[in-house]
Design brief:
Layout: H1 3-42, E1 68-70, E2 93-95
Antiparallel strand pairs: 1-2
């Protein structure tokens, strides 16, 4: 056997190996699809519209609509650590005196930036 035929034989063996690997990958993907379909068939069907939960006639249960405002951080001569704050560093809140929701002022974005027109 000369060197040209050996190169050709090695190339065809590599090509045959790639084809075999491709067939194995396709077989695994098909098997995964079939297994997923079997599992999906065993699951219960999604609920019909009449089986969906309904809101009570008197409205949502235990829902409280109120405005909350943060408690003030205690002032002192030194910096406080989180465990020295009320609520152990969690920001406590209290009910606001008015039930009106705060609104952004006109011309303000209420978020980042100056709230201008957006032009540069």
């Amino acid at each position: 056997m000369n060197s040209a035929s050996m190169v050709f034989a090695a190339g065809s063996a590599a090509a045959l190996g790639l084809v075999a690997a491709g067939v194995v990958i396709v077989a695994v993907l098909i098997g995964a699809f079939v297994l997923g379909a079997r599992i999906r068939r065993r699951e219960p069907a999604p609920p019909r519209p009449e089986e969906q939960p309904r809101m009570p006639d008197e409205g949502p249960v235990r829902e409280v609509l109120e405005s909350r405002e943060p408690d003030e951080v205690p002032r002192g001569d030194r910096r406080l650590t989180p465990h020295e704050l009320p609520g152990h560093g969690n920001s406590p809140t209290r009910s606001a005196p008015s039930r009106e929701r705060p609104r952004w002022s006109d011309g303000s974005s209420g978020s980042f930036g100056s709230g201008g027109s957006g032009g540069r």
